[in-house]
From TrEMBL:
PANTHER family: GLYCOSYLTRANSFERASE. It comes from the Bacteria. Transmembrane segments: none annotated. Residues 2-146 form the Glycosyltransferase subfamily 4-like N-terminal domain. Pfam families: Glyco_trans_4_2 (PF13477), Glycos_transf_1 (PF00534). Gene3D superfamilies: Glycogen Phosphorylase B. InterPro entries: Glyco_trans_1 (IPR001296), Glyco_trans_4-like_N (IPR028098). It comes from Salimicrobium salexigens. This is Galacturonosyltransferase. Residues 187-337 form the Glycosyl transferase family domain.
Length: 369
């Protein structure tokens, strides 16, 4: 089959879906990828994908640019004439889905989170849900990454056809292996994410300021691209010795290696946190928000702790609880997380789900249905 994949950036495809793409290529499918050209477009071409440079404003709300994206998708579909289209993230799901529906092409959508427009309510929510209904109503399958997102859309009759909850993007367990738990007397806490308000950076910095003062044998590391004007604040806090900012990194495993615990106080509306999946796969305890996309990865008290949303005091409380644990108990939390990931979040599970749906699409195409 000719399989077209629509996404908003290459990193997500390469880091979280490469194994699926490799499997499709190994089965002699012709795989096309569409997203804005970046450093990952070449990497995807190297594994056998054909790349189509497609500009997209990931967070913009300009209707003219969005209409152009929709027209670009229609043109791509007409030129390639794919047998099936896979879409990821909000704009490819919406505008790619509408284009597929109008061109009568089978498509499979993946809801990687409903986005801030839906989360915040108001007129943008109404518009987004209206577009979701048009785009997803005729999808051959809609994959959700958590039950809450599924319930939100199905209860509003946005999704009527085949749909299923899968365990996020899963984890490559050979790439993220169980790491030895560090025995350092200094306890290292790790934040891995975009440095932005909705990812809980303010709560992390509040906790770092308090804990570092009370427990000098702690370090707070930040790894990720800095957004929303936090550069000056991070620089000042680093100069005072409160945090260590490492910027964007291509491979975070060296940070997991020295870390004792991952802190992810996000309240961003994501489908399933890859940061948490990878941290737990490495055998690291987790402190994260009690919300969809996070709580699925943590059995509270068994492989980490859940905290209240936007609550610095609760985060501080859980960090102190963690610091009071014995070394072997901390280590066991991490090992429990690895077991949970192996059981529930192996990336092979996701690949199997996609292959199952794609085989059904291929059969219907052959039968002329």
């Amino acid at each position: 089959m000719k399989i077209l994949i629509l996404a908003n950036f290459g990193m997500g495809l390469y880091n979280f879906r490469k194994e699926l793409l490799e499997e499709l290529i190994s089965q002699n499918h012709e795989v096309y990828t569409s997203f804005p050209r970046d450093e990952y477009s070449i990497k995807l071409e190297e594994i056998g994908c054909k790349f189509i440079d497609t500009p997209i404003s990931r967070r913009g709300t300009n209707p003219i640019k969005d209409f152009k994206l929709f027209m670009d998708y229609k043109k791509i579909i007409r030129n390639i004439q794919p047998d099936v289209v896979l879409t990821y993230t909000i704009k490819p799901n919406i505008y790619g889905g509408i284009a597929c529906r109008l061109e009568n092409v089978p498509y499979i959508a993946n809801i990687t989170g409903l986005g801030t427009a839906v989360e915040n309510g108001g007129i943008l929510r109404k518009i987004t849900l209206f577009l979701y209904k048009i785009s997803l109503n005729k999808a051959d399958c809609v994959f959700f990454q958590n039950e809450e997102n599924k319930n939100f859309l199905t209860k509003r009759n946005i999704i009527k056809g085949n749909h299923k909850v899968i365990p996020g993007s899963g984890v490559n367990l050979n790439h993220y292996t169980t790491l030895s738990y560090p025995k350092d007397t200094t306890v290292n806490f790790l934040y891995i994410s975009r440095v932005m308000k909705e990812k809980g950076i303010d709560q992390f910095l509040d906790a770092a300021t308090y804990i570092k003062e009370k427990y000098p044998n702690t370090k707070f590391h930040i790894v990720g691209f800095c957004e929303n004007g936090y550069e000056d604040k991070l620089k000042a806090m680093q100069e005072r010795g409160v945090v260590e900012f490492h910027g964007k990194q291509k491979d975070v495993r060296k940070f997991h290696k020295m870390s004792h615990c991952t802190i992810h106080p996000t309240y961003y509306p994501e489908g399933m946190s890859n940061v948490l999946l990878e941290s737990a796969a490495c055998g690291r305890p987790i402190i994260t928000t009690d919300r969809s996309g996070c709580r699925e990865v943590v059995d509270d008290g068994k492989n980490g702790f859940l905290i209240k949303q936007k609550n610095s005091e609760d985060l501080i409380k859980k960090i102190e609880e963690f610091l009071k644990l014995e070394y072997e108990t901390k280590k066991l939390l991490g090992l429990n997380g690895r077991v949970k990931i192996e059981r529930e979040f192996d990336r092979g599970i996701i690949i199997g789900e996609y292959l199952d749906v794609l085989s059904g699409v291929e059969k219907r195409n052959k039968d002329g249905l």
